[in-house]
Amino acid sequence: MKKYLFLSLACLMALCAMAQIDAIRVTQGETTDWYPFGKSDRIDVTIYEQGNPVIEGKIYDLTKGNVETAFGTDPLPPIKKAAKNELEDKKKEANNSMNKKAEGYEQIEEVKQAKEQGNAKVMSAADAAKIYIDHATNESTIQKEKHNGLNAMEEETQKTLAGIQAAIAGYKESMKNNINDIAKDAKDTINALGVYNTVKDDAINEIDKAVAAAETSINNATSEDGVKKAKNDAQNNINTQLATVQDYYNKLQAAKVVAIQVVEEAAADAEVAINHAAEGYGNIETVQHAVVTSQTQISSVKDKAKSSINEETNVDGVGQKKENNIKQIKDLQSKAEKDIQDAINEFIALQEDAINEVEQAAATAKEKIDGLGVDESAKIDAKAQIDNIVNTAKQTINAATSKDAIDNAKTEAIAKIYNVVQNLKDTWITVRTDGVAGNWNTICLERNITTIDGATFWTVSGQDATSFILDEVTEPEAGQGYLIRFTKSDLKVKYGDQVAAEPVTASDGNPMQGTYVQIDAAETNVLNGNYVVYNNQLCPVVSWVGLYAHRAYVVKNLIPQGEPAPAPGRQRAYMPKPKETPTSLEANIGGQQPKDGKYIINGQFVIVKDNKMYNAQGIEL
């Protein structure tokens, strides 16, 4: 059932007064057009069962006041107020959204600024909309400006929310970058420390894990505290790894210092041991060489050890290199000690050998001196000179510092010893004092002769019917018998080195037979039938003729027949054969008493009768 609402007179009057239009009647449930501000501003009014009008969708409660309170003199202010309230609600909503978006990150400057700027822009949009609403002259404009304001506020809200999100993301990214920077610095430091790969790589892997975990935690963090915790946890892990590597590096460096010190001490000990091994022989050239060589090698090992240890990245490796280098130094020390001892032994052996050679040369020289035909006093003096030479050589050899010095001392001493012998050999030796210039005699010496003064030496080289053919010998040989022809009363010679133990046996082409011992006169002896010098002639021996030691005779059967060709460089002489053979000859010595007969003994005519000797005048001798 329709009900009709009749406006009171007061209401109508008010409406008429306000809009200057006719009163209207509104039926419940129906809509009536109302133009309170003229035809251009139409308002739909509907009256519901409760009796309250609905103006453009908004219910006005008439029970709370009179018609003037419900409609006022102007219906727009409530509409404007309602619009402004919506703007305020939107502002609060935007602020709440911003706060929620920034929740947990409020202290971040960028978030704070984004939120403040967003609130300011939302507020500015709301304020601008309010101004436009205040100036609106109809509800449509109010609604339009309200919607514009709400949209602007929503747009600024979304921008702000995005800005807050970006600020939070930027903050997180900066924290992740910060962690990565810290990690990079830590890894750079670890790489620069120079530890071995296992320690280094393990630490770097743990750092990378910490960074990855931090990035995940930061990405998932819902607050600044969560981000900071993730960053701090990662930084702590990084610092722990860095500290672990740094601690290993410190141990490595300490191990290097100790290792280098131990190696240097080993090198110093080795040097002391080497010098001790060479003590007393350090000035010997070969020992010096062994010492210097070993010290150079040890110094090289020490320097290389220091370099290699400093390059080592592993504590165990440092220890191993230390042990290896110490062993190498000890090996060099052992080798040096052996080389030094070998050099010393070799040098001592060289000294001993050199001294032995000098002493042997001295002994040989003394034997030669003993065999020389010089005065005993000259031999004693010569031996004393040799002893002095030997003693000086020993001192020089024992003080020598090189093989050359030893060889020089030895060579010089042997040369001096030889010179002593040679000088003694060069001494004129008087071998005969019974000479008469122009007279002939014989001689046979144990030594060869290099120089002759007082006689010429000859040998029988042949014969003819009247003469013996003689050839001169300028270099008489040891043990050989010779004819000699005095040029002075004394015959002096200089002996050579050759010595004959026995006289050279006469042979074809060499009929002279010498003797070192005297041949006693006897009825039968080697002289019988041979020739001896008598009265400056070679005369045959019949019997009872003796011969002094170091004389010679001519073996008759060995004298070549005919005149041989002269030997090159030899002088030739002829000795007439005796015209008749005497019945008695000169007895140079008489080992036995001659039998009765006539003899010439020592140049004197002797008559032997009844074992007594008488001169030519019959006086008993």
Describe this structure in words.
By secondary structure, the chain is α+β, with helices and mostly antiparallel strands. It contains 11 helices and 22 strands. It has helices at 9-19, 67-71, 76-102, 109-135, 139-193, 197-220, 224-277, 285-311, 315-371, 376-399, 403-425; strands spanning 4-5, 26-27, 31-34, 43-47, 53-55, 58-59, 429-432, 440-444, 447-453, 455-463, 467-473, 481-486, 491-499, 512-515, 531-534, 537-540, 551-554, 572-576, 586-587, 597-601, 604-609, 612-614. The strands form 7 sheets. Strands 8-12-10-11-18 form a 5-stranded antiparallel sheet, with no helix packed on it. A hairpin with an 8-residue loop joins strand 3 (31-34) and strand 4. The radius of gyration is 76 Å and the shape is rod-shaped. It starts with a strand and ends in a 7-residue tail after the last strand. Mean pLDDT is 83; it is low at 1-28, 34-42 and 64-72.
What attributes does this structure have?
621 residues, 22 strands, disordered N terminus, alpha+beta, four-stranded antiparallel sheet, 16% strand, five-stranded antiparallel sheet
Summarize the topology:
Layout: E1 4-5, H1 9-19, E2 26-27, E3 31-34, E4 43-47, E5 53-55, E6 58-59, H2 67-71, H3 76-102, H4 109-135, H5 139-193, H6 197-220, H7 224-277, H8 285-311, H9 315-371, H10 376-399, H11 403-425, E7 429-432, E8 440-444, E9 447-453, E10 455-463, E11 467-473, E12 481-486, E13 491-499, E14 512-515, E15 531-534, E16 537-540, E17 551-554, E18 572-576, E19 586-587, E20 597-601, E21 604-609, E22 612-614
Helix pairs in contact: 3-4, 3-5, 4-5, 5-6, 5-7, 6-7, 7-8, 7-9, 8-9, 9-10, 9-11, 10-11
